[in-house]
Amino acid sequence: MPLNDDPQHGAFEEELGAVLRRAGDGFSADDRRELVAGGLKRGRRRLVRRRLAVTGGALALAAVGIGGVYGGSLVGPGAGTTNTSVATAPKPGNATGTASATDPKKTPDAQIPLKDIADVLKANTPAGQWTFDGLDGVGHAVAGVYDDGNGKAAVSVGLYRAGRTAESGSDQVTCPDEALVAYDRCADGRMSNGDRIMAIEGYVYPDKRDGLKNWRVVRLTKDGFLIDASEYNAPAEKGDAVSRENPPFGLTQLKELVSADAWAPLTAQLPQLPKPGKGETKPPAVPSAAAVQATLRSLLPKGVTVTSHGGDDGHGYVVVDDGKGKSLVGVDVQPKAGKAVAELFSGAGVVTLPDGTKVKATQQPGEKGGAGVVWWSVDTLTPDGFRVAVSAFNSGAQHEAATRAEPALTMAQLKALALSPKWQKLPLK
């Protein structure tokens, strides 16, 4: 049911404005209109910065979860990000380990009593029956099952330090791109008190299967803390059948939850970010988002019209239409691929060009659930480790049904695009 027709949850725009007024003490009407217009209409927001995955390009991935933020412990030893269509908070009991970019062995764990986090969660949500598991320990996140008599629902809250810079955590409060992530509504903006907030109505799976919904609100405070709340319309994120049409809390309720003053004493207990080690390796430099997108557009064949575009540093995409239906085309540029990636370019199907560049071309079904979607890709690696991977789909978004029989670009065109010398001439940042 559309939000505007739902008497329980009300209009998305009105609820968002209401919570921003209360949390920000005076969010203006003009600001609300700008926020809603931007959150609901744009399809160009950047996702969390990511390097090429060893197994493929960024277009093969769903939106990442809490990446690069530090709560002292996230989802277990050596864990990194959450690859669901909408990122989720960690499960209770995972009070050890880390997902920070630093050495896990050098990262202290958060020491917030889990009971205290649960108490704030219960105190700032409507009356109902709560069930938690493992509240005797310490950590930074809790997950419980809430029952208001209309169906049990999983609810989780996590507290994190965003990072070392002013921009740290900004991607967590920025609406993801609709071409890459499936959701019904998303809005983001800055409150008058300086905090930033994002609200998103998404799904557990990119193809929206099983009707499993995940509604999530994230607040980034001025002093660099993230309060991340998620709710579902089932007793568990995965593995249980839908128990209700929508998650239990209205949008205003969920946003007021993350805006509660009671979180401040708890986030203050999060351990400080570890100082960079002497031998800590910086991420490899990549071309800027603007440079990648501009180069991609310049290399497109004639006869296609770009209907939308976006990306991030090292990654860019366009949605094109040649009159036969929309087609998503993306590129990832990795100047220093490393030995792990080099191992992918071996075995059958890999062609070595006279200059030593290796080319791997594949045609396979899409992975994000869109009916009839196919994924064509050409992955290239030069002898000095410069990697360019190009992907194309026969749909404007991987999680949406195919709009055409084949992608708008042929395999030969994808190969030519990936092998263009323009990529190696781009300045790095």
Provide keyphrases for this structure:
16 strands, 8 helices, seven-stranded antiparallel beta sheet, 2 domains, Jelly Rolls, 16% helix, disordered N terminus, alpha+beta, 429 residues
The averaged pLDDT comes out at 77
The low-confidence runs, each spanning 5 or more residues with pLDDT under 50, are: 1-12, 19-107
Major sheet description: 7 strands, antiparallel
* Euclidean distance between termini CA atoms: 45 Å
The spatial strand order of the largest sheet comes to 2-4-5-9-8-7-6
Describe the structure.
With 429 residues, the protein is α+β, with helices and mostly antiparallel strands. It has 2 domains: 3-267, no CATH class; 289-425, Jelly Rolls. The chain contains 8 helices and 16 strands. The chain has helices at 12-24, 29-41, 114-123, 251-258, 264-267, 289-298, 339-342, 411-418, and strands at 112-113, 129-132, 138-139, 141-147, 152-161, 183-190, 196-203, 213-220, 225-232, 305-312, 315-321, 326-334, 350-352, 358-365, 374-381, 387-393. A 7-stranded antiparallel beta sheet has the order 2-4-5-9-8-7-6. Strand 10 and strand 11 form a beta hairpin. Helix 1 crosses helix 2 and helix 1 packs parallel to helix 4. The longest helix is centred in the first third of the chain and has 13 residues, at 12-24. It is globular, with a radius of gyration of 22 Å. The chain starts with 11 loop residues before the first helix and ends in an 11-residue tail after the last helix. 47% of the residues are buried. Mean pLDDT is 77; it is low at 1-12 and 19-107. It comes from Streptomyces wedmorensis. This is LigA protein. Residues 85-108 are annotated as: Disordered.
